[in-house]
Amino acid sequence: MRHINAKQRTSLFTLLFFSWLSIFAQNTEVSDKIILQLKSEIGNLSETSLEQNMVGNNKIDSINLKFHSVIVKKQLVGKKTLNCIYVIQFPIKTNLQKVIDQYYRTKEVEYAEIDQIGYGGGQKSINPNDSYYKRQWALKNDGTFTLSTAKSGADINIENAWSIEQGDSNIIVAVIDGGAKLDHAEFKKRIWKNYSEIPGNGKDDDGNGYIDDLQGWNFAYNNNDPSDDFGHGTNVAGIIGANGNNSIGYAGVDWNCKLMILKGLNKTNFGFYSWWADAIYYAVDNGARVINMSLGGTATSTTLQNAVEYALKHNVTVVVCMMNTNSNTVYYPAAFSGVIAVGSTNSDDTRSNPFFWSSSSGSNYGDYISVVAPGNYIYGLDYQSNTNYNSYWGGTSQATPLVSGLVSLLLAQDTSRGPSQIKSIIESSAIDQVGDANEDKKGWDKYYGHGRIDAFKALSFQVGINNPDLGSQKFFVFPNPTSQNFTIKGSFKIRRIQVFNSIGEMVMTKEVEAQESVTVELLENGIFFIKIITPEQSVMKKIIVQRD
Known about the structure:
Layout (H helix, E strand, L loop, with lengths): L5 H22 L5 E6 L8 H5 L6 H9 L4 E4 L10 E5 L6 H10 L3 E6 L2 E4 L2 E2 L33 H5 L9 E6 L38 E3 L13 H10 L16 E6 L6 E3 H13 L4 E4 L1 E2 L5 H12 L3 E5 L18 E6 L25 E4 L3 E3 L10 E4 L1 H18 L5 H10 L26 H5 L15 E4 L6 E16 L5 E16 L4 E8 L4 E8 L3
Parallel strand pairs: 7-9, 7-11, 8-9, 11-13, 13-14, 14-15
Antiparallel strand pairs: 1-3, 1-4, 2-3, 5-10, 5-12, 6-17, 16-17, 18-19, 19-20, 19-21, 21-22
Helix pairs in contact: 6-9, 7-8
């Protein structure tokens, strides 16, 4: 362990003291907004009504006037729905439940709810001096990590995974968080930009008709600058997609995906559910395939649930943190059906309990947890500097982007995969019973879910190989059965061969120099599935090995 002298101990105490002041301040935030959906036959939205701070429904507008509403805003609901939803802001200390009760008495609302507040799931800590990639025990753990007890192999097995897939720039990962340091060298050529036309005059400041300076969207401040002013978002985005193999800083899980930075947390690390819902719809409608949400709130919400369901329905995988109160307290959106809910482990594979920043913290657990991933002492990028690599965070917030990065690699490998299939692959390939035996039971359990993610096994996992010969007779595998060697021959030039065993694990991969005939050797008995990859297609074939 690194020695801390008296001066350093004082600095550490000061840092932790103000961190706890920050936590206290966050949890005293009170919502001043209501989310309201009118019944479809009653909705009468008009821009004129919004400009006059009205909904356009006489009964609702009279209630808003009675309680002195401040702002009426249209809620983004996605291009593929026609729902009429508003976010209505009232003065601080307004009895919002009383307002909601009066809404319901009109019999003209589908639902009304308080726009709840949630928080980013992580806390910043001290800045130790260590080497760079070697610090990333979550990616490769050789048992020498110095800040906590470490166990070799307690990582996500990414180096083997990178030999299969390093990502695709066509895959967009939306990061709904506190923004990011957009000019960091580790994000060079990785930040997604929105080139769609601006509504209204169709011009931006450059006068060329496109938003070529828009990296994402700032839902916290309603502008197009999603820069980080807290630090949480930069760390999370870097875990997913910091440029790898570029001689500086750290390596993200995915080296090529685009990062859509959506600011749903403000500079004090809190955000309204309406911001998060807006961001989800924005991400889906603008091409994201993965949404990372390292945040959560304890109140459920129809608005937020509808947004998550919209994402899942439109083929977007949603990955959410379990949060950090060391309890089974239910947080949303992690508890919504269909998402991948992620808990955190330490560098010795035990559940993070506590995190380094508080003795009362810990990775949450419960009936809806999917998997766990490393999340304590996670070094990353600094939101205030392009050259400082000494900051680290801890929380389920840091475990979640490891899973999101894996999702983007799985999509790069096969873009046809949907959220349910990806969730199944990640859960089925997770490593079970690696943690505390009192918690990490065989099979699914409420502390570790299906287990700690394994990127290599996930990328080696094949779903739906029961009909391997379906759809193609252009390749032949012979002899079949074989005692050892077999030949693949076809009318197309072969680029790569992958061999999977009967439970979907990849046991061999072989690059081929564009040949029409390839001989392969298998040393074990059993049933195997051969994936033949050409520039035009991929084909599955089954072979039986019967050695003497």
